[in-house]
Amino acid sequence: MILTNEQKDSITELINISFSRAAASLSELTGHRVLLSVPEIEVHSIDNIESVLNKYIQGEISTVHQIFNGTISGDALLLMDKQSAKFLADLLVDDISISKDFNSSIKEVIIEVGNILLNACLGVFGNLLKVQFTFSVPNLHLQTLEEMLKSIILEKEELRYAMIVFMEFKLRDSNIKGYLVIVLGVTSLDKFLKQVENIG
User: Fold this and answer.
1) What is the pTM of this model?
2) Which pLDDT value is given to residue 94?
């Protein structure tokens, strides 16, 4: 699916606003300045997501997954490869040491990062688009990309799309790539784009 330039600009602006809030929260949490890069956004059919993301992220991945419901409903996910997730946790919290195991301390940090990012993004969407969401508790999974896609809850059998946001965390001279994926059914995507056009 191809977004119009106006739709893409409006969505990018929404993401930028949410990322600035998320970066401020992460900076406050860690005591280090955290920057999030200007996002690049693509929308693809859910059937094509694996091939798209396989170009950027492979092997076992860390996924923070949150389900949201309301006028617009879907799944929000933060994806990073396992090593990047461990490295990000190490940078964010000085007393965490990188280990071979994905220990509970690392998991807690990554869930918190995912929670901040996903809630900031969905919160801005809700406020500016004037829609209300309810959220599930975020969950962390370590799995392959294929397993992650199979695990996404299908409440309605309809054509689904995924909005992929490519981003980088920049802190302490390190760049760590992550991928924000928002999966919407065709009905929710249509409502979302209409609301985006209304504020554009």
Assistant:
1) 0.88
2) 64
